[in-house]
Design a protein that fits this description.
By secondary structure, this protein is an alpha+beta fold. It is 60% helix and 6% strand. It is found in: Membrane.
């Protein structure tokens, strides 16, 4: 309910963020009711988050891919089956309530001409650079808000104040951005107007999200990508004389490209755009744009936006030796590298140590021949300055 007010009032926020959080909370509640262990809790939270994304966009496959590609960074049969069941069920319920229409019905698309694929690579580079700029501003917004001489709990009033004049003079600019996407895809708009709308939405979305109000960035990013695609499409039509009908193709491909550049999840972006638009004729050109955007974003040094936001949230950026010992636990996930690993082969960074293992409510001190099982809870100690580095290495194994 907390997210309904900022999203429903017209701020530039997406509904997928609260949907994922609500789904994860439901998964945690189910695990608590079933008295599951830490490993089962992680799987159920992930499955709930997958269901939340699926229900938000009527995109069941994207919900599954997001969890595998963005959250866990690995493939697990148990995780896949659980997330698949939750995502499909949530999507069926959403279909029953809201119908089977795609979230963005942009009409049918012609197959993009093979001889113009060079434009896709160039546009992929273009949206990757803009994605890097978007991410840099997003990370700087909390510092900018801190410079305003008001208490942090009043930050949320600033975007709400902007809603009033925007709603009076530019009501089309309100909301997460779905209306913008449908507007620019319905007919060709001048490049100058598109640039003006992009700059306005770019600033408005950062003011909305940077205030700390609950909401997501998927839809705002997709709307900005659509604007970039229309801008590039106008230029391509003017230079090369491509038919006007392909302007919608540029819009759709740029949406996936910008989402890839910001989140670093190309497969999720491809599937999300495919499911949202309800057409598969653009799979190949969309994949070319997303792959190009991913490679260029990686070259520019962009990290996945959610990982960066998490690091800023928990303040666990690796520092130096601080002299304070921190204990933390890690639950061994099914089918991970830790599952079945012998303790002697676990290589930990300097200053960290495995101190005990909890298995089926029994605790013991591991020795070199101890084999880790799925569901084991491993307890580590490390200097507070290196906890993040240790967890990062364990996440790669787990």
């Amino acid at each position: 309910m907390e997210a309904c007010c900022p999203i429903g009032s017209g701020l530039a926020l997406g509904r997928e963020g609260p949907s994922i959080q609500l789904g994860g909370a439901v998964g945690q509640g189910v695990n608590h009711y079933l008295k599951g262990n830490k490993s089962q809790q992680n799987i159920l939270i992930s499955a709930g988050a997958s269901a939340g994304l699926s229900a938000a966009f009527n995109a069941p496959v994207s919900g599954i891919m997001f969890i595998l590609e963005e959250v866990h960074h690995k493939f697990s049969s148990v995780l896949l089956l659980t997330a698949f069941s939750a995502s499909i069920t949530a999507n069926f319920v959403a279909y029953t309530i809201f119908g089977v229409q795609p979230a963005l019905d942009l009409g049918s698309l012609l197959q993009f001409p093979l001889e113009h694929y060079a434009h896709l690579v160039i546009m992929g580079i273009f949206v990757a650079v803009m994605g890097w700029a978007y991410q840099e501003v997003l990370m700087y917004m909390p510092k900018l808000y801190q410079k305003i001489p008001i208490p942090p709990y009043l930050y949320g009033f600033l975007p709400f104040i902007l809603v009033i004049p925007i709603g009076i003079f530019l009501p089309e600019m309100l909301g997460g951005g779905t209306g913008i996407i449908l507007l620019i895809s319905s007919g060709r708009i001048s490049t100058h107007l598109l640039v003006g709308i992009f700059l306005f939405r770019f600033v408005y979305s950062h003011i909305s999200y940077g205030s700390g109000l609950p909401g997501g960035i998927f839809i705002p990013v997709l709307s900005l990508g659509a604007l970039l695609g229309a801008i590039y499409g106008n230029g391509a039509l003017w230079i090369t004389g491509i038919e006007d009908i392909f302007i919608r193709s540029f819009i759709i491909y740029a949406m996936g490209g910008l989402l890839t550049a910001v989140t670093k999840v190309p497969l999720t972006a491809v599937m999300l755009i495919t499911e949202m638009t309800g057409t598969v004729t653009h799979l190949m050109p969309l994949a070319v744009v997303c792959l190009t955007a991913y490679v260029v974003a990686d070259f520019l040094g962009s990290d996945p936006v959610y990982e960066e936001l998490l690091q800023k949230k928990i303040h666990q950026i690796p520092k130096v030796f601080e002299g304070e010992v921190i204990e933390f636990e890690v639950s061994v996930e099914p089918d991970s590298d830790l599952d079945g690993m012998m303790a002697r082969y676990l290589r930990l960074p300097y200053g960290s140590k495995l101190v005990k293992v909890r298995r089926h409510n029994n605790e013991f001190i591991p020795h070199q021949d101890t084999v880790f099982w799925s569901g084991d809870e491993l307890f580590f100690t490390a200097d507070s300055g290196f906890v993040s580095e240790v967890k990062k290495q364990l996440d790669k194994l787990n």
